[in-house]
Amino acid sequence: MTNLLDRTAETAWIALIRGQQRALSSIEDELKAAGFPPLVWYDILLELDRSPEGALRNRDIEARMLLARYSVTRLLERMAADGLVNRRPCDDDARGVIARITPKGRRLRRSMWKTYERAIVRHFAAQYTKKEAKILGDLLARLSNGGAAPDRDWG
Amino acid sequence: MTNLLDRTAETAWIALIRGQQRALSSIEDELKAAGFPPLVWYDILLELDRSPEGALRNRDIEARMLLARYSVTRLLERMAADGLVNRRPCDDDARGVIARITPKGRRLRRSMWKTYERAIVRHFAAQYTKKEAKILGDLLARLSNGGAAPDRDWG
DNA sequence: TATCTTTTATTGCAATTGCAACAAAATAAC
DNA sequence: GTTATTTTGTTGCAATTGCAATAAAAGATA
């Protein structure tokens, strides 16, 4: 059997799972302790904040954040109830729903970032030099690009 | 304000979150598609399988896997209902509960590993050379050791 | 010893998530 | 143009998770 997992890679995989879980849950704890909503709300607000008009279709949020469809529906539902986003039907596609960030939503995002940033430093960035962070980021970026298949030489 | 997050580290953080999420959810999907229970069951079975007598106290599972206490209670409850573990009171501490893996549990773990291993290769290991995997693993291991505080020189 | 605190585990209830079914509109196929 | 397929979004219901309260035993303190 080819393509077996070698020990080095297995160790790296475990380090990835454990390390990420530890860092992320510490960070989420800090946000919660500061009275903020969960990180996924921040991520959605960020995507919206960065987009032209501060608006995106549900399906785009779904695609960018790898969320289940119903999660997007319900997350935006709750965020709308909190006045962080508005939702309106899409002009050129009657199936579509467009979520737009509100001023309150933008304020919350900025406010969360202060805590989030400190927490990232504390639980992640402080472990690395700039050079190391560059290496780490480059290696990890491969997991998001292409996904399942490794880069292949189709020559 | 000192200790601000620089761009390199921020990029690395995002790569960590995205990359891990992508790889892990692909892997979980493969396990589910093969009809297996979620990965956390595997992790518990592995911890038990490796332990002497194939048994651990709830609190040890909790500590090793960074799970909430009630999660451990309920996970083991369901796993026991499936005949994968037994539970019995702890001899020298009447508060304690000891979970022990059953033969069926050991078989399931081995069986899951076949799928899990292939999936790790596909969605993670295939992206890296052995050298790269070593570097990546070493860098990520820092997140699990020590946790919040960076290694400091108290001289 | 009696009392206070910490550790360990469980449980009721509310919130969230996941599954599967559904519906409406857009797109493709014929 | 009509029919089939795909895309997009929602929803009821079941399963899971999280919070907060509870309880019992162990350990610490006086």
Poorly predicted spans of chain A? 147-155
> Count of DSSP helices of chain A?
6
Overall pLDDT of chain A, averaged? 92
Please tally the β strands of chain A and state the result. 3
Decide which structural class fits the backbone of chain A: mainly alpha
| Order of neighbouring strands in the sheet with most strands of chain A | 1-3-2
Describe this structure as you would to a colleague.
Two copies of one chain form a homodimer. By secondary structure, the first copy, chain A, is mostly helical. In chain A, 62% of the residues lie in helices and 8% in strands. Chain A has six helices and three strands. Chain A has a three-stranded antiparallel β-sheet with strand order 1-3-2. In chain A, helix 3 packs across helix 4. The radius of gyration of chain A is 19 Å and the shape is globular. Chain A starts with 6 loop residues before the first helix and ends in an 11-residue tail after the last helix. The C terminus of chain A is likely disordered. At the A-B interface, helix 1, helix 5 and helix 6 of A face helix 1, helix 5 and helix 6 of B. Chain A binds a DNA duplex (30 and 30 nucleotides) through helix 3 and helix 4.
